[in-house]
Design goal:
single chain; 115 residues; 4 helices; 7 strands; globular
Length: 115
Amino acid sequence: MGSAKKILIVDDEEDLCLLMKIYFTRKQYEVSIANTLEEGLAKLATLNPDVLFLDNNLPDGLGWEQAPELLDKYPELNIHLISAFHPTIPQHVDQHRLRIMEKPFTQQQLNELGL
């Protein structure tokens, strides 16, 4: 029980979250969604997901600013930073556990993640 990998999607674009949830649920992942940074950080602490999709421009803050601390705090977590803009990429982070995805992205790009 509980062997399915868990994904948390933190993005204020509800349609994008729903599409990603459908995609990953079909691939047998447990998927949770948060639409604010505060909600996302709370769910991250309780759900302990394997993968985090984190938008940068959220209503209550910049998600990408959290990435270095989250990588330190959750050593098993892999983060996919997503944004429609071209913000500054966080410095001094483990590039093997952190990837950048620019919106809009395609289903083929999701397939290429290897999840």
